[in-house]
Amino acid sequence: MEWRQTCMLFLIFLFQVLVNEVRSQGGNTVFDIRQFGATGDGQSDSSKALEDAFSNACNVVGGRNQILVPEGTFMVTSAVFDGPCKGLIEFRVDGVIKASAGIIDDDKWVAFRYIDGLVITGEGTFDGFGESAWNLNDCKMNSQCKHLPTSIRLDFVKNSVVSGIHSLNSKFFHMKIYKCNNINVDGVHIIAPEDSPNTDGIHIGDSANINILNSVIATGDDCISMGPGNKNILIQNITCGPGHGISIGSLGKYNNEADISGITVQHCTLSQTMYGLRIKTWASDIQLTAYNITYDDVVMDNANHPILIDQEYCPSMGCDESKPSSVQIKDVWYKNIRGSSKSQSAVNLKCSSKYPCDNINFFNIDLLYQNSDNSVNANCKNVRGSASGIEKPPSCL
């Protein structure tokens, strides 16, 4: 475990060197989107100007080339930036990129694909204008619902950095990282109302060596969610809430899902969240394993369900409750988890009767009920493991 975290910290150092180099040199060439027809009046569509600026920067051989979104509000209907590029790319946002009202016939709004050595930075904002479309989201009632656009997508991107930006009121997920490798997300701010539907802060799928660091996430759904196929994910120094906490899953819904492993969540604070640290799987015949997962030094501030393994996950109607989950959860460590629970069920482990949770370990769990001396409890179902140190609530292992 220690060698893996050492490697991750070394990668973080290299990523920060890349960010600092780009910032200090300012890029070999700056492509200001206003030179390509963008107007920062908040009304004119600047989509083509953004794509043209990127295309020009992407085709410069070598160097570090910057696409600049200056101060102002630039309305963008949809923009897709495809590599590979011939040099390094910095996408700098100092102003506001604002989505058009309603929805578009796509599941992405701003997308970066097939790029090696991308830096997305600046103190500006991606405003998804989600309030114009949230009423069209029927996913709670319709399991086959059409997903609204994700604000920022990284697909098949590697050796890249996202730093400092703000994401506001996404229509669906704020950021989705898919099929990526070596991505560092550092110092971002993600904000949406508590009742906004499916506005996950950052969703990671089928990716490896991803670091989410030093960020503030307050949304209507998971602050960070991790689907199947992920390896070596470090989540560190995150302030989360409101929202649904930090989740692994859901797992076991689709055929050919890959195992998820090497997840570390540490030095985080979860405040007024519906869930805290959650692993969720569908009751289905889909087989995969979630393993080598560590939660360490996490503060709960009135999280409704601080520690939850739910292998009976079914957010909408139509699940076959007679089937146990075929997802194996094993080798999980909860260490130094402390704070307060909004419910008396502070620890709830509902594991599969077919593949019981194995080697689930608790060390120094210190949770109170709503900041009072009232007791909280722990419930275990189909779990094998151990507990030591502080046991509040008394362990059910």
TrEMBL record:
Q: Which GO terms describe its molecular function?
A: polygalacturonase activity
Q: What is the residue range of the signal peptide feature?
A: 1-24
What is the recorded name of this protein? Uncharacterized protein
GO terms in the biological process aspect are:
carbohydrate metabolic process; cell wall organization
| Species this chain originates from | Trapa incisa
List, from the UniProt record, the residues annotated as the active site of this protein.
H244
Print the keywords alphabetically: Cell wall, Cell wall biogenesis/degradation, Glycosidase, Hydrolase, Secreted, Signal
Lineage of this protein's species? Eukaryota, Viridiplantae, Streptophyta, Embryophyta, Tracheophyta
Q: Which family, according to the similarity comment?
A: Belongs to the glycosyl hydrolase 28 family.
- Transmembrane domains' residue ranges: none
Q: What is its main location?
A: secreted
Q: Which SMART domains match?
A: PbH1
Q: Which domain of life is it from?
A: Eukaryota
Localization recorded for this chain is: Secreted, Cell wall
- InterPro entries reported for this sequence: Glyco_hydro_28 (IPR000743), PbH1 (IPR006626), Pectin_lyas_fold (IPR012334), Pectin_lyase_fold/virulence (IPR011050)
Q: Does the keyword Cell wall biogenesis/degradation apply?
A: yes
